[in-house]
UniProtKB/TrEMBL annotation:
One of its GO terms (cellular component) is cytoplasm. The chain crosses the membrane at residues 54-73. This is tRNA pseudouridine synthase. Gene3D superfamilies: Pseudouridine synthase I, catalytic domain, C-terminal subdomain (3.30.70.660). It comes from the Eukaryota. It comes from Aegilops tauschii subsp. strangulata (Goatgrass). GO terms for biological process: mRNA pseudouridine synthesis; tRNA pseudouridine synthesis. Residues 5-79 form the Pseudouridine synthase I TruA alpha/beta domain.
Length: 80
């Protein structure tokens, strides 16, 4: 989804304009891996996201977009 490096991630957060003036964050690692466990016969996946800091609800919004793309409700290009 997001390449390593610094990105303006304002579209992946709950806006907090009163307290945040810089929406750039540095992503140092982003991996998605299958887990060995299952839940109700569904395959589970693990996301590992590391960065210098995170915005309010940033990770939740990133995961939500991945679900929408996976369900075919959004094009992968929406991430750009």
């Amino acid at each position: 989804m997001t390449k390593q490096g610094e990105h303006d991630l304002r579209n992946f957060c709950k806006m907090d304009a009163a307290n945040v003036s810089n929406y750039k964050r540095c992503i140092t690692d982003f991996t998605i891996s299958a887990c060995d466990q299952r839940s109700n016969h569904d395959e589970l996946w693990f996301m590992n996201i590391r960065g210098s800091a995170f915005l309010w609800h940033q990770v939740c919004c990133m995961v939500a977009v991945l679900f929408l793309v996976g369900q075919g409700l959004e094009s992968p290009s929406v991430v750009d």
